[in-house]
Every structure is written in structure tokens, then in C-alpha cells.
Design brief:
- It contains 3 helices and 10 strands.
- The protein has a 4-stranded mixed sheet with strand order 1-8-2-7. It has a two-stranded antiparallel sheet with strand order 3-4.
- The two termini are 29 Å apart.
- The chain is of the alpha/beta class and 131 residues long.
- The relative contact order is 0.26.
Length: 131
């Protein structure tokens, strides 16, 4: 089976500091500005009833301190819950729109992200590492 190459979804993050993310172990969801979460749900094809559908992977592209780009990828089972009831399969993504933070748009990477990637917080070096 030939693997289809997907085109990345451009979030308009071409400028320094215009797309920020925080890691939050106290958040059970991935949260972000309403425009972003709505766009992600549309592009992922999220709907309440999913009847055995498969959903695409969701990657967050980050740059390390040396400038090397890394894609941190969540598979559907990482960001999507499913439940069957009375013969119908229901799905919901762990994505939630949030209001203005007062500090500009920010993406909160909560437990769906942190469960997938072993995360090291190095306070001394002011760095975060993923494995």
C-alpha cells in the first residue's frame, strides 16, 4: 500500500514568537484559540458519530536549540476517545477552544500530548526535552 504524502496545515507561524505552546500537566485536553481548534477539527474530520472511521495523525513541529526541526506526532488513539452505545460508535477529540489569554494566541499541550511523549523539564537549562 502506497503511503500518501500529506500537506502540512499552515497555521501562520512564520514569524518569531507568533505561535507559542505551553506544556500543562494539569490540562486533560489540548486547548487553543477557537479559530485554531475549529480548523483542526474540520481538517481532521471530527464528528460525534464516527462509525468505525479512522482519523489522521496530528503532528506538532518544533525546532530544537540547534535549529533542527522535529515532528511530534499523535495518532488517532492519542487524541480521540471512542465509545459504543446502542450500536452507534461515538467519537470526541481531546481538543477544546479557549478564550484569549491576554498574552496572544497560545496552544496548551495537555495530557493527550504528555501521555505520548516522555517529557523532561530542565529548569537549570531552561529547556524541555521529549522522547
Amino acid at each position: 500500500r502506497k503511503k500518501e504524502k500529506k500537506k502540512p496545515l499552515n497555521l501562520g507561524c512564520g514569524c518569531e514568537g507568533c505561535c507559542r505552546a505551553v506544556l500543562d500537566s494539569g490540562s486533560s485536553l489540548i486547548m487553543g484559540p477557537a479559530f485554531l481548534i475549529t480548523m483542526l477539527q474540520e481538517k481532521l474530520g471530527v464528528s460525534e458519530t464516527c462509525g468505525g472511521r479512522n482519523f489522521p495523525s496530528l503532528s506538532f513541529v518544533v525546532r530544537d536549540r540547534y535549529g533542527k526541526v522535529h515532528a511530534l506526532t499523535l495518532e488517532q488513539e492519542d487524541y480521540m476517545d471512542r465509545e459504543a452505545s446502542n450500536g452507534t460508535e461515538y467519537c470526541w477529540a481531546h481538543l477544546l477552544p479557549m478564550g484569549d489569554t491576554g498574552r496572544g494566541p497560545v496552544l496548551v499541550l495537555g495530557m493527550p500530548f504528555l501521555r505520548k511523549f516522555y517529557t523532561i523539564f530542565d529548569v537549570g537549562a531552561q529547556a524541555v526535552g521529549f522522547a
